[in-house]
Amino acid sequence: MYAHCDYDLIIIGGGPAGLTAGLYASRAKLSTAIIEKSTSGGRIANAELVENFPGFPSGVSGSELSARMMSQMMQAGVEFIRTEATGVELRDELKCVNTAQGDYSAEALIIAGGCQPKKLGVPGEEELIGGGISYCAFCDGSHFAGQPVAVIGGGDGGITEGLYMTRIASRVTVIEILPCLGAAKILQERVRENPKMDILCSTKVEAITTEGNMRVLRLKNTETGEKSVLEVSGIFVLIGLVPETAYLKGLVELDEDGFVKVTTNLETSVPGIFAAGDIRGGSSRQAIAAAGDGATAALSAEKFITFKQRL
Amino acid sequence: MAIKTITVLDPTAKSQKVLKMAPRPDSLKGKVVGFVWNNKPGGDILLNRFVELLNERFKFARVVKYTRPLASSGTDVGTLDSLSATCDLIIIAVGDCGSCTSYVVYDAVEFEKRGTPTVSVISIEFESLGKVEAQALGMADLPMVIVPHPVGGIPLEQVAKKADDALEAMIKALSGPVGK
Question: ipTM of this predicted complex?
């Protein structure tokens, strides 16, 4: 039984969605806390350059964008709690978030915990994580200075990080399972102009092994069935995202891929619990869209709390 | 006559939590100094060079080196406790990406909370993020030494030179008035 409610609103996740939600909630005079387990600003903090966030004509580094959003959120008076949310319970009409530092309760909750990089799921991957396989070129790229690397995934993430690696590595090979790259056209133009980048489309990674200091990618052409190998020093896997929703199972409705199902005002299947950003079903997984989601979810949470307090 | 209640809202933002940092020593001579490397390339070179230069000048009683298994996670509680109990001062390197900067600052705050003064080494590209992170964790004045970016992926002598150039800033941060 909770003697009191700690906050009007708790937000799980301190990326663009959570930070924007915090800003809006604080301006609505809701006592608000953000619980973030890892990087302030979320995954965008690791982006070398963000070129598609309005207001920055020359682009902005992910760390600078994150710092600005964090700073604005703190000026608004949002409390920042650095710990991991391990569960959510409904008690006495309150939403209670379990963490390693104890439980926190609120009238309403916004889930904005984002996603983790998706793994390839092929033999050899798990054993080499941190020892040749990484999911963030900007974080780990310098391990492979002057050496050949492969980037798995030809979407925006893969191409952006692949282009970054061409400044560090001797050669960058992008491997895409689909017949063509999925990255934005402007990024594809940069690939064509970059002499250090090779592209292998219609190519599937079947396994990863080690030979000496090299990692060996065992590849299969999905159109011809032809098999080949590629030796590189480092491998960056950027094939998509999986939502961090394991602790929400049984609480809110999730879609078949584990993303949180929401209504148009971003409310989940539980009244008073909202979801915003990459973690919700149907998200475009863009920082600017996540920020928009944060605003929408906070406004919806405010309405929910105001209505509840009037009852 | 009906009594009407008016709710008056306080328009000021809620003040952020402020945690006290550990006091700095009056002198660095004869101290036990911990060097925590977060496994980021170049961070070990920076730390080794700082060890060499600082030890030469201050004759430390002992140097304790610890390598974190991953840059993208914090030091475990047991190690935080043990290093804090062993060391008079701790230097942590290096914050040169978003995740690793967050965890360098997080570790530093945890050591400071345990009473051990720290200095975090952050590359200039991540200075803003490091500072805002420290503020969010309640230690806005957390001492940091800022070095030019990048730290990894460049010749070793260039990394070591960054430590040479940042030595005076490091000494000032280790023994400054913060926390006294």
Answer: 0.83
